[in-house]
Backbone:
């Protein structure tokens, strides 16, 4: 009997160490779309993380286009937790649909929107586990940031959780 109590106490202690289930940043019932007129070569370059679902996550990302369907991406990954980003991101479909092996929690990446001059972009996942707004300049222009937030809202993201 004493052994069973020790096992139960051990299991309860370990359960307290388990990470809490992540609450998606977007409603799973909401429709999601990607940028129909996405031009991969124009997306290449330096971006600043201006808002994400990870409190306090900031930094820069560098996207190098190889001209054959993939980027080498480095910098800060704000998906799940702030961590280093160094991965190959492959264009998987039209409209800015991308995939990475390790980066961005290994989830499909949708470029939800990018402005006409590629100054700001909204990225997210169909699952809603993460979302981010990237800007070429930091801080982002207020009008462009407002437009990117509207796109995130349209795609079901909880704007109160994007910081």
Residues:
């Amino acid at each position: 009997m004493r052994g069973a109590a020790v096992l139960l106490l051990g299991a309860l202690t370990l359960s307290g160490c388990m990470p809490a289930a992540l609450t998606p940043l977007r409603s799973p019932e909401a429709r999601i779309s990607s940028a129909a007129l996405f031009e991969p070569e124009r997306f290449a370059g330096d971006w600043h993380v201006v808002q994400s679902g990870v409190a306090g996550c900031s930094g820069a990302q560098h996207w190098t286009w190889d001209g054959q369907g993939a980027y080498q991406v480095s910098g800060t990954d704000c998906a799940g937790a702030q961590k280093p980003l160094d991965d190959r991101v492959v264009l998987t479909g039209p409209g800015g649909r991308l995939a990475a092996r390790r980066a961005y929690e290994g989830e499909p990446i949708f470029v939800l929107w990018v402005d006409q001059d590629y100054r700001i972009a909204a990225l997210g996942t169909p699952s809603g586990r993460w979302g981010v707004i990237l800007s070429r300049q930091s801080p982002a222009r207020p009008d462009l940031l407002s437009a990117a937030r509207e796109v995130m809202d349209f795609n079901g993201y909880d704007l109160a959780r994007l910081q």
